[in-house]
Amino acid sequence: MALLFPPVSLVEIPRTERLRSCGLVDCDKRTKFRTNCCVALRASSSMEKKVVWIWTENKQVMTAAVERGWNTLVFSSHCRDLAHEWSSMALIYPLFIEEGELFDSEHRRVATFFEISCPEQLEQLQPKDEQAENVIVNLLDWQVIPAENIVAAFQSSQKTVFAISRNPTEAQVFLEALELGLSGVVLKVEDVKDVLELKDYFDRRNETSNLLDLTKATVTQVQMAGMGDRVCVDLCSLMKPGEGLLVGSFARGLFLVHSECLESNYISSRPFRVNAGPVHAYVAVPGGKTCYLSELKAGKEVIVVDQSGRQRTAIVGRVKIETRPLILVEAKSDSDNHIAYSILLQNAETVALVCFQGGKGHRITAIPVTSLKVGDEVLLRIQGGARHTGIEIQEFIVEK
């Protein structure tokens, strides 16, 4: 209850500040998009702030939402007493539904409702409609295609478009439609779990905006290790040069294993694939966690990282486990050469680590493990080594 507040009168708060807290006033100039500019859509989708309003009659849901910073609540017209009661317990911004429109506590219109159950109703939803600055759509039939059509139609509009979501999965569909997504969702739920799951989704989205600290380490040993069961991870996303997965024999140090996106004379590129290593190895997954490569399967998420530490989540589409010859690579970081880090990888020219190479420009490139030699510099993600079910914990541990 740390974020709950003593009774506060909404009248004492300036109108602009109240509307800004509700997400009704755009503090910064809204980005304009061109219909033919997919790059602009992609770049802005991760930066635009999404707005969440909560529609509930459950006190526990309200409390969980307010504690997570979502304090704009939607009420039916007959729930004014409930809104007044909750306003005495927490700092909330109540909005009321009346005859297809949404009003604040001073009866100022802030949004217009549209129920859409057929293409004809969707066509009636126009960005130039001046009824209200905010639009709330209730998609009663199809969801994905109508949401994409709305995103495309409103991408150059100043209006904020919300969709009513009845669970976190629906909310994710609306927030990611055409990559850009709708501006916000109205989460209509009566279960606290739904609020927690949606907040977890936003935490994972925000995580990708943080750069991972990658450390330069020097290769100290490269040797043949025999046969083993190695894992190819095929993603539902394409990777670019410099991108790959963080993998290692020890969770304390994960190597940046390059994707198979580079062209060669003998085999076509597979920019969706990382030949990641044997089944025992750790791989970085969202939430600052790791899991074993053997645990990956279709539908799970992993972290894709580039040489600058930029990260994004990707969905696993397929995992292939096959017996192949392996190479052992060991390295030590420049900051602490007493700790060794290791990884085993398939002995093949298409398997590469992202390495720091000297020379003009100090370019970072991928070098095949078949060409790797002692003294080469590779990129590592150094972190806590003790893990319980993939979660970092504080305990004494020795791994070698």
TrEMBL record:
GO terms for biological process: amino acid biosynthetic process; aromatic amino acid family biosynthetic process. The keyword Transcription regulation does not apply. One of its GO terms (molecular function) is 3-dehydroquinate synthase activity. Keywords: Amino-acid biosynthesis, Aromatic amino acid biosynthesis. The keyword Amino-acid biosynthesis applies. Pfam families: DHQS, DHQS_2nd. It comes from the Eukaryota. InterPro entries: DHQS, DHQS/DOIS_N, DHQS_C. Residues 217-400 form the 3-dehydroquinate synthase C-terminal domain. Residues 49-202 form the 3-dehydroquinate synthase N-terminal domain. Coiled coil: none annotated. This is 3-dehydroquinate synthase. It comes from Actinidia chinensis var. chinensis. The lineage of its organism: Eukaryota, Viridiplantae, Streptophyta, Embryophyta, Tracheophyta.
